[in-house]
Amino acid sequence: MRPQVIIIGRPNVGKSTLFNRLVGKRLALVDDQPGVTRDRRVGQASIANMEFDVIDTAGWEDEDAASLPGRMRKQTEASLEGADAVLFVIDSRAGVTPLDEEIARYLRTNDVPVVMVANKAEGKEGDSGILETYALGFGEPAPISAEHGEGIAELFEGLWPVI
Ligand code: GDP
Ligand code: MG
């Protein structure tokens, strides 16, 4: 079976854009509105000779903060079932937010290897946000621009040792 790689992160960090970039077809809906992708979407991805299935998720919407931990756990537990690796995406322009920290805490309770991805890293605007991701505890981030197709080599370097 192809390795299963799941994209996780809070709304609007660029998960669906990354999914589309990796899959090469516009299978996931991308929009300026947070939380547009309602379902999990699975696509076939390859970087160089590395082949894997990639899963786009939208389980972390923050419309009702009070019920967030419970819903997070439920939807993410289901998502992580059978996953070989997580691409944990943050928005390097926004920096690390409390919801990112919440997701990080959850991911630390799980055994699935996490590759830290600092998206929106084109230009210099994301530089401090990229550095902030070290505090989340998942090691060196892969700085990428899903929109511009930059940093895919760094993503490969993060992913190939774990899948
Ligand atoms: P999701 O909610 O995490 O799935 O995020 P989306 O993929 O829907 O993207 C949210 C917004 O961020 C959209 O307006 C995208 O165009 C934008 N976006 C995604 N990737 C990048 C990137 O690499 N750079 C910049 N500047 N914007 C991006
Ligand atoms: Mg999405």
TrEMBL record:
Residues 3-163 form the EngA-type G domain. It comes from the Bacteria. GTP 1 binds at residues 9-16, 56-60, 119-122. GO terms for molecular function: GTP binding. Keywords: GTP-binding, Nucleotide-binding, Repeat, Ribosome biogenesis. GO terms for biological process: ribosome biogenesis. Belongs to the TRAFAC class TrmE-Era-EngA-EngB-Septin-like GTPase superfamily. EngA (Der) GTPase family. GTPase that plays an essential role in the late steps of ribosome biogenesis. Associates with the 50S ribosomal subunit. This is GTPase Der.
